[in-house]
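Re: zinc ion structure - here you go.
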Amino acid sequence: MQIAIQQGKNCPSVDGAYNVGAVITVNGQFATFGYSRQVPGNTHAEENALNALLAKHPKKEYLENVVLYTTMEPCSTRTSGKKSCTDIILECGFISKIFYCVDEPPLFVDCVGKEILVGAGIPVIQIPQLINDCKKLNSHLFN
Ligand SMILES: [Zn+2]
């Protein structure tokens, strides 16, 4: 999660979006990272980390024990109308567990990402110890 927070600091801040960092591990080893708007367009951290993983491992059927760390709960609705990270995670089908710190605040949309993912059988575990560090990434939006 510390690496995810460091990645979150790379986000170019914009008024209408959160700064989020994400890391993916495969079998306990660091695999890829992502952060908000790392790829041009309104891209999300989890989306960028997953795309990087698929670029590295095109044969996704061999991916095992894939864990996603993200500084904020995966989104369930995007104001841009793009596919949500929750949908992207469910479609890829290989994420076995998710750790996150901050619940998405109801600033732009009401997020139910955690509820949907847990309902689909993916454990979603909050790491409360690092909430303040993750919130600081979004000091342009809230304190
Ligand atoms: Zn998202």
